[in-house]
Design brief:
Cell division protein, seven-stranded antiparallel beta sheet, 31% helix, START-like_dom_sf, single chain, cell cycle, cell division, 155 residues, alpha+beta, globular
Amino acid sequence: MPTIIHREFVHASAEVCFDLSRNVDIHTETTSHTRERAVGGVTSGYMEKGDHVTWEVVHLGVKQRLTAKIIEMERPHMFVDVMVKGAFHSFVHTHTFEPKKNGTIMVDHFHYKSPFGVIGRLADWLFLEKYMTNFLVGRARALKEIAENRHHTLR
């Protein structure tokens, strides 16, 4: 079961990073390359503990739906979402926000299990872990850009 950890320093407060990370509209913007759109549950605005969202997305050329639910939240330091339904066997995505003197370190801790047993583990080794790492890094960098350059216009 792969675990991907990515850290991104952002010149913005933990509160700004936390709010951007749980905003459905911002998520849609930062994942436009996979055509993600919210089609169920919370479809706009901020997600809270207990909320779920169903995303329609194209990953690896395959259109799919994935439902995630926020199971833990400690504003503005962390929240955890888990897959309720979707292509993975399971995933737990912990988002943490560590305040620093001149900003925040955003940390994605993504632990997942692929479906299909041995075939899924082979897919992880061949391409899936790298694909998911690139996806998380790209999203973190897009959030950084928004937080550092546009966050004041989003309130």
